[in-house]
Amino acid sequence: MDFLPSLVGISLFAALLIALSIVLFVVGSQRNWKYLFLSFLPLIVLIVTCYYYFRTPDSFYEDEFEKITQVEFPENGDIIYATNAPWFSFNGDHTSAFLVELSQTYIQSLKRTLKNRGFNKGGGGIINDQLDYIESKFGFRTYTDQFILDEGTDTYMVGFLYDNESVVFVLVDI
What we know:
The protein has five helices and six strands, in the order H-H-H-E-E-H-E-H-E-E-E. The protein is of the alpha+beta class. It has two domains: 4-54; 58-173, no CATH class.
């Protein structure tokens, strides 16, 4: 709930910009078309501000990687694609799926780490909309290896792709 004060702040900021836009529109409609154009400027600022406020930062996925693997995110790792998981929630429930590109040597050590952590090797996997979207976007449906761990409220899936560089991570946190 630490995001709640900032959510109140952005709501007040939004109300102020909307009020300013309405005032500029009323003044512009009575005087000149240039004021009408200016009335849309606060709304554009509001849209851009909301986008950056609600956009999930890359550090969120690096933290998810560390939560799943209990290993620090590698410096040479690159997050290729991530679904838009909410980095805040009122009750802590969320699902995130992301595609990471790693070196082949790191992938081999990651597989050993996952086995030591208690992941079960096998198929099946997790079925969710975010994973389906990543799979369809990048055109793959099969994995060389797949590891799954169910810890009660959290379920993790790590899928290693055939190119030996890409790994899909899925976290379902209930």
